[in-house]
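Regression test case RT-17, inverse folding.

Input:
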């Protein structure tokens, strides 16, 4: 089937995973810049100071900073209608709380937006994508400090005013619900480094509240600067199935859906904390400190649309004898009906249809899939070709299910495949885990000439966009 006129086909990236130039033209360090490389079996480390001789993947990444014209030209060749990217906050405010913005950083994004608009590609901008300025981590322990709300609001006011005639679509925080995940979420999503003796759960949920308030303020501010702005939330959707029809398994799957998926979107879409969240806080001794106007701010700053990432589904059970498998943010248990990626993520296209139906039934606002893709090991053949049929199969199967959800009445705005050009993996820091339609010559150790090369999937996706989703062969 064809998608509706104006459907936003495109690709998605994040500044810290592909931009590079981490300390050029006045940019300050971000939390991502302090994370070492890793592998599927060796976790990334957070270093409070940079270690000599240690590899930090974000420092160079794939150097979009110096290749943006070449890369955007390739996106245009595929026919992108939109390109999801993020602004590196510390490129605009190097310490996060500077009195004046960095003009060189602002000018860089002017250049990028102008290049996109030259090809009629609509920018979709994530304001904060897993990279809090490290200066705010040192000064306030990241989002655990209420002061960061004002720093973020100032940042938003700066970029909204600067780009009000170039950018229409904005996302306030990437995968904001990662702060519901122990350990991983604190630093990645909140820029928090817990000290010995800290209540990590309290820090995470207080930081999450601060982000809710900041998001709501950004929505109100953005609409006042340009009423045509469309500002959305972004959730890492973790689709959960009960392993059995044991009511305990079913309730556990519902609990995880509420806590890790619905808590954040309920606040951002509906404007208030749901009852299950308040009960969870009570049962776990979490006390959310609110200022007197916070509840009013949340009600008045609801988002215009709901966007999310979807890669896989999980199986949930109360039987802890099962072996866990890995996943995006949260793992689960093995689903015998599904195949898995090279990194153990269970491939479930029908889970995307279920998720779209579930989200739209709950909120009845426009929805957008802003991350979906397959991380795999790609091989360059002797003739230079890269035959990633496995990626084409993955994407085709998910787009088919997406179209089935649209037939059910889901108001779907667009689809931006994750990592449209190979980039650094957020979870592992690898280049080996490739997602892109475009191959970048760089390995896990940072070696390579950065040359760009199209894969078989590049030409397939071009046909998908040309046919508005009708030609998936």
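Golden output:
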């Amino acid at each position: 089937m064809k998608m509706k006129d104006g459907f936003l086909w495109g690709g998605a990236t994040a500044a810290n995973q592909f931009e590079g130039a981490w300390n050029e033209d006045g940019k300050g360090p971000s939390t991502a810049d302090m994370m070492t490389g890793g592998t599927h079996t060796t976790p990334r480390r957070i270093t409070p100071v940079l270690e000599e001789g240690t590899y930090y993947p974000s420092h160079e990444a794939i150097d979009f900073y110096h290749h943006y014209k070449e890369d955007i030209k390739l996106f245009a060749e595929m026919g992108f209608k939109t390109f999801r990217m993020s602004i590196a906050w510390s490129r605009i405010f190097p310490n996060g709380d500077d009195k004046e913005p960095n003009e060189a950083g602002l000018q860089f994004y002017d250049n990028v937006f102008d290049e996109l608009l030259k090809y009629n590609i609509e920018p979709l901008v994530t304001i904060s994508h897993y990279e809090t300025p490290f200066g705010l981590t040192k000064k306030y322990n990241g989002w655990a400090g209420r002061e960061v709300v004002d720093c973020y609001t100032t940042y938003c006011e700066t970029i909204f005013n600067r780009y009000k005639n170039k950018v229409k679509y904005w996302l306030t925080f990437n995968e904001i619900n990662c702060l519901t995940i122990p350990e991983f979420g604190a630093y990645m999503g909140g820029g928090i480094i817990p000290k010995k003796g800290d209540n990590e759960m309290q820090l995470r949920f207080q930081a999450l509240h601060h982000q809710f308030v900041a998001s709501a303020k950004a929505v109100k501010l953005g609409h006042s600067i340009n009423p045509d702005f469309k500002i959305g939330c972004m959730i890492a959707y973790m689709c959960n199935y009960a392993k059995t029809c044991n009511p305990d398994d079913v309730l556990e799957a519902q609990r995880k859906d509420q806590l890790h998926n619905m808590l954040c979107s309920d606040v951002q879409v509906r404007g208030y904390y749901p009852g299950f969240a308040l009960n969870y806080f009570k049962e776990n001794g979490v006390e959310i400190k609110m200022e007197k106007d916070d509840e009013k701010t949340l009600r008045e700053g609801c988002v215009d649309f709901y966007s999310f990432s979807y890669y896989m589904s999980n199986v949930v059970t109360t039987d802890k004898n099962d072996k866990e498998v890995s996943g995006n943010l949260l793992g689960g248990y093995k689903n015998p009906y599904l195949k898995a990626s090279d990194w153990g993520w269970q491939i479930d296209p029908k889970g995307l249809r279920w998720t779209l139906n579930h989200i739209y039934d709950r909120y009845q606002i426009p929805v957008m899939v802003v991350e979906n893709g397959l991380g795999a090991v790609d091989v360059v053949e002797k003739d230079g070709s890269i035959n990633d049929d496995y990626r084409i199969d993955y994407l085709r199967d998910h787009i088919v299910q997406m179209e089935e959800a649209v037939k059910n009445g889901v108001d779907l705005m667009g689809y931006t495949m994750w990592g449209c050009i190979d980039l650094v993996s957020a979870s592992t820091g690898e280049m080996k885990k490739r997602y892109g339609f475009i191959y970048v010559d760089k390995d896990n150790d940072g070696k390579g000439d950065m040359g760009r090369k199209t894969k078989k999937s590049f030409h397939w996706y071009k046909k998908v966009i040309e046919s508005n989703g009708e030609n998936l062969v």
